[in-house]
Q: What sequence folds into this?
C-alpha cells in the first residue's frame, strides 16, 4: 500500500500504515476461503483480487475519510463499491474473516465484486469491495446483447418487488432489430455528449426515437445506464432501481433492443440504452 504524505505526524503515520498492511494478504486469503464456500444460499464466488488503490481507499476510511473521495484520490475508477468494518480489538485475522462472513455475507459473497482493499486504524479493520470500471471490446457487442436479453428474461420469469410494488412474473421478451437501432442511436448521442438522459439533445423522447428507427409501436419504454462494463452489472442496476425495475417487468412489452457505446474520455465511459416495446 502506498502511504500518501503528509500525515499529522508523517513518520509515525507511515509506520502505522505499514504495520497495518503486514497482515492484509492473510486476511484476504481467509475472506476468499469464505467466498469459496458461499453463504446464506449464495453460491461460491470467484476470489477477490488485492488492489493497492483500494487499500489506500480503505486506509483513508480508517483515518475517518470518505470512501468515494479516497477512491478518487487513489485513482481507482469503480462502478459499484461497498465498505465493511469490524471492531477488531484483539481479534485475529481468522476471527475477523469469520465475523465478516457471518455479518456481511450478502456483500462478501456477491460475485459482482472483484477487487478488495484493506485498511486498519482506530481499533477497526476496514474492507472495501468494488467492481472495477472496464469497457468491453466492440467485438463483444453481440454476446453482451444476448446476455442482457437472457438476464432480463430471467428477471421477468419470477415475481419481483420493485420498490414498494409487488409485481407478478411476466412473459419473455424477444429481440427486435428496429429497437436495437433506436437504442444504438441514443447511446451514441449520450456518449458523444457525456450525459445520461432519456431526453435527446433535440428534445426527443423514447417513443419518437423508436418511430424514427421504423418501429411501429403500441407500447414503448426505455431504460438507460452508464458506467457498467458487463451485462450482469447493468441489469442488476436496473433491477435495484424501482423505476427501471418496474419498466423491465412491464407485461405490456414483448420485444427488446439493447446497445452500448464506449467513450472513455467522458465521465461515465460507457452508455447503455435498453428499448422495450410492443409492436402494433
A:
Amino acid at each position: 500500500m502506498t502511504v500518501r504524505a503528509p500525515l499529522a505526524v508523517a513518520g509515525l503515520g507511515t509506520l502505522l500504515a505499514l504495520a497495518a498492511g503486514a497482515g492484509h494478504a492473510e486476511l484476504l486469503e481467509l475472506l476468499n476461503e469464505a467466498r469459496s464456500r458461499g453463504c446464506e444460499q449464495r453460491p461460491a464466488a470467484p476470489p477477490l483480487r488485492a488492489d493497492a488503490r483500494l487499500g489506500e481507499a480503505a486506509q483513508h476510511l480508517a483515518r475517518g475519510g470518505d470512501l468515494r473521495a479516497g477512491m478518487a484520490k487513489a485513482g481507482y475508477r469503480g462502478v459499484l463499491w461497498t465498505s465493511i468494518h469490524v471492531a477488531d480489538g484483539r481479534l485475529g485475522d481468522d476471527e475477523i474473516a469469520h465475523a465478516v462472513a457471518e455479518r456481511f455475507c450478502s456483500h462478501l459473497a456477491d460475485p459482482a465484486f472483484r477487487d478488495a482493499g484493506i485498511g486498519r486504524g482506530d481499533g477497526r479493520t476496514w474492507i472495501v469491495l468494488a467492481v472495477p470500471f472496464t469497457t468491453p471490446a466492440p467485438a463483444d457487442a453481440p454476446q453482451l446483447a444476448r446476455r442482457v436479453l437472457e438476464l432480463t428474461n430471467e428477471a421477468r420469469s419470477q415475481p419481483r418487488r420493485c420498490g414498494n410494488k409487488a409485481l407478478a412474473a411476466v412473459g419473455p421478451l424477444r429481440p427486435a432489430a428496429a429497437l436495437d437501432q433506436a437504442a444504438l442511436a441514443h447511446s451514441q448521442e449520450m456518449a458523444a455528449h457525456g450525459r445520461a438522459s432519456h431526453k435527446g439533445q433535440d428534445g426527443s423522447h423514447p417513443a419518437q426515437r423508436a418511430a424514427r428507427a421504423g418501429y411501429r409501436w403500441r407500447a414503448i419504454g426505455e431504460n438507460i445506464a452508464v458506467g457498467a462494463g458487463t451485462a450482469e452489472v447493468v441489469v442488476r442496476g436496473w433491477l435495484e432501481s424501482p423505476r427501471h425495475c418496474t419498466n423491465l417487468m412491464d407485461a405490456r412489452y414483448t420485444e427488446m433492443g439493447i446497445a452500448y457505446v464506449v467513450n472513455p474520455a467522458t465521465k461515465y465511459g460507457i452508455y447503455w440504452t435498453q428499448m422495450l416495446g410492443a409492436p402494433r
User: Anything to note?
Assistant: Residues 1-22 have pLDDT under 50 and may be disordered. The radius of gyration is 22 Å. The first strand starts at residue 49 and ends at 50.
